[in-house]
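idk why but the lab printer keeps eating my pages so im just putting this in chat instead. protein + pyridoxal-5'-phosphate:
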Amino acid sequence: MKYHQFQIKLSQPALTGKESYYTTKAFEKNEVSNYGENIRCFEQHIEKIVGQNKMAIALQSGTSALHLAMIMLGVQKDDEVICPTFTFIATINPICYLHAQPVFVDSEPETGNMCPKLLEEAILHRIHHYKKPKAIVAVHSYGMPAKIDEIIYIAKKYDIPVIEDAAPALGSYFKNQHCGTFGNFGVFSFNGNKIATGSGGGILLVNTKEEKQKAIAIANQAKKNVDYYEHFQVGYNYRMSNIVAGVARAQVEVLETRVKWHNQLHHWYKNLFSNTSQIELKSVVNDLFNPNYWQNLILFSEEKFRDDFKNELLNNKIECKLPWKPMHTQAIFKNCPAFVNEVSTSWFTRGLCLPSGSSITENDKTYIAQVIHKLI
Ligand SMILES: *Cc1c(COP(=O)(O)O)cnc(C)c1O
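predcted complex ->
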């Protein structure tokens, strides 16, 4: 079934009306390259939202921000980088761009994110059998905060830097601190399906002015600040366009409202499934976690029940998707070390992501409820 045939889509953003205002202004001022007011205001607004004295750099995608973070950490050929197995492949691809090796770690069952216990096992095993991992990538999958305090504690214990892939977690907090600000580097995505979009785009969070200057330079073909073309290393063309930043700028202005809206949608789903013991809507386990609820994920007691449910939603033109297929089960990563339990595979076989886009209307909800009530 093709995407456009769905009556209700999985993750369609909602526009505010100000996107075209900011982009038009960029055209009027002839600021159509990768500098200008939109980029400046967008970066400043992100810095204000996340706090912690972080500096934000606007880039072309979350993937390029992850790639740049790994370059900044000096990840090289044959280095190992620890990452979750239950994630979107964009977390892993930049490791491969650098000819480094992913080492996969499975999830804990409360948030679905990297299991701190298994993480420590993996670190000890790799130190013992090969060499110390060069970096850890922690992911806040679907906007649900990982147990990032425990992950950072272990990372510090072994002196390994952390990149936080908070691509889907703009507006998510752990212990009242914004996701993406715990690690050495943090990443957000402004892809078309995220809680705030630029039509595409990403942010890299760094700690110092020096890091910001260096990251921007590498994202700009690693050109030295001299009056001829002198390059200090292999570079990239990764900076965000000021046109795209106009869209992202308008979207982050309403982030708070969006997060509130997603929380309401989550509680609406919770209510919908409250009398169904075979379906568990993944939610916070305690109030240290404050997710943006970008996506709503349900787990079924049985795979067959999930498949029937999924087919019925699709037949009724309601888009839904299976959760990530664990990376250690992907053919392209079959030779990578993996530290697994049953959690990621179990979520893949029993899970389903439900429509959660900011553009869902009250009518859509009534329709979804009708279809689901018939099923349960
Ligand atoms: C969306 C997403 C990305 C990729 O971001 P892009 O902007 O699409 O490159 C990376 N990691 C996770 C966990 C994501 O959800």
